[in-house]
Amino acid sequence: MVAAAAAGRIRIDNITKTFINEADANATVRALSNVSLDIAPGEFVTLIGASGCGKSTLLRLIAGLIKPDSGSLSMDGEDISGPGPERGFAFQDHALFPWLTIAGNVAFGLKTQGVYAERKADVAHWIERVGLKGFEKYYPHQISGGMCQRAALARSLIVSPKVLLLDEPLGALDAFTRMNIQDEILKIHSGEQTTMIMVTHDVDEAVYMSDRVVVLSPRPGRIRETIEIDLARPRARSSADFMAYRKQLLNILHLGGEDTGADYVI
Ligand SMILES: Nc1ncnc2c1ncn2[C@@H]1O[C@H](COP(=O)(O)OP(=O)(O)O)[C@@H](O)[C@H]1O
Ligand SMILES: [Mg+2]
To answer: Which residue CA neighbors atom 26 of ligand 1 most closely?
Structure first.
């Protein structure tokens, strides 16, 4: 059977990250400046903010794909020094392998960990869990974008990560498919108690899904504000409370129509 993942705590302590500009080696980009954030086990945190404010950089740091210039990151008390299976990620540009079937893609993590033989049944479990039963033998180009996103989720969840990093995972989907997969992710979040850290550009998605929304501002990327979403789940997207959070977020992002000096474009 599939073991439930124990949830992970992420601590981000005063990190700064600078990149050298590819076009001009003398110019540097301060992607993140003095960012601190504690994420509790099982928490659902959304990062939102203008393009270029460091959201993907922050996820890549947590994934261990890059290192900060200063400050520290830890998971469950241990420094993050590289990628690890306890931190799964589903990034928008992290496409399925086109040469593998859906089942092959979902099985990939088990194979690289050398546990496929004993956990073969998990492949069917996760394919069913994301609503792709019957599509096991299809290749990515034979199914829709939404189905590929579901398969990508199953592929990252099958190895029971304690933390799942999602970088605009639903960005390319139509509104209905998107709402549908939001619910699938929330079901998995509550079922597995996985800590989830998701980047989105969609204010409604942030309010619908998160325990906490972290608003970043650019140049340099910093935490501008954090909002706890104190609403029971499942959330009603048209309730007055929901709309109040939505409005609060839009105003912080200067997109609420109440601030004419908008320097903030999502
Ligand atoms: N590998 C890199 N090399 C140079 N600059 C980078 C690199 N990755 C990100 N940046 C720069 O860092 C800033 C933050 O980027 P990113 O984290 O991708 O922002 P976001 O995901 O919020 O749009 C941007 O100015 C971007 O151009
Ligand atoms: Mg990004």
So the answer is: 52
Amino acid identity, position 247? K
Q: For ligand 1, say whether the CB of 55 is within 6 Å of any of its atoms.
A: yes
Instruction: Decide if domain 10-37+53-237 falls under CATH 3.40.50.300.
Output: yes
Decide: pTM greater than 0.85. Answer: yes
* Ligand 1 site, residue 54, Cβ cutoff 6 A: yes
Reported as a single tens digit per residue, the pLDDT across 182-196 is: 998 998 899 989 999
232-263: per-residue pLDDT in tens?
999 999 999 999 999 999 999 987 665 444 44
Cα-to-centroid distance, 31 and ligand 1 (Å):
6
- The b-or-e profile of 103-126 (16+ CB within 10 A means b, else e) is bbbbbbbbeeeeeeeebeebbeeb
